[in-house]
Amino acid sequence: MLWSALRQAGVSHLSQVAVAVLEPRGRISVLRTGQPIHPGALTGVRGAHAVLEQLRGTGDLHTAPLAAEEQAGPSGGSGEVPVHDGAQAQSTS
């Protein structure tokens, strides 16, 4: 299941993965290395604090304010990230 999620995210090698998150309903979300990751992307994820520290160390953590279009989210919503109780983050660093 993990490799299937990685392939769907276009990952061909583990070095391309910054974080893989097991979502509450069993889906795996993949955040790739080399792309700035906003701390809000890990809101509600258990273990996020440790992962954010690792991302800060690798320079993959995006700390600048979000642009207006990013705050609106892809569907024009509020841009808030829902809390996923039970989601777990796994850093591959």
Notable traits:
93 residues, alpha+beta, 3-stranded antiparallel beta sheet, 25% helix
Can you tell me about this structure?
With 93 residues, this protein is α+β, with helices and mostly antiparallel strands. It has one domain. It is built from three helices and three strands. It has helices spanning 2-8, 48-58, 68-72, and strands at 17-22, 28-32, 88-91. It has a three-stranded antiparallel β-sheet, sandwiched between helices. A hairpin with a 5-residue loop joins strand 1 and strand 2 (28-32). Mean pLDDT is 78; it is low at 73-86.
- Our measurement of the CA-to-CA distance between the termini, rounded to an integer number of angstroms, reads 20 Å
Give the strand order, joined by hyphens, for the main sheet: 2-1-3
Q: Provide the domain count.
A: 1
Q: Helix count?
A: 3
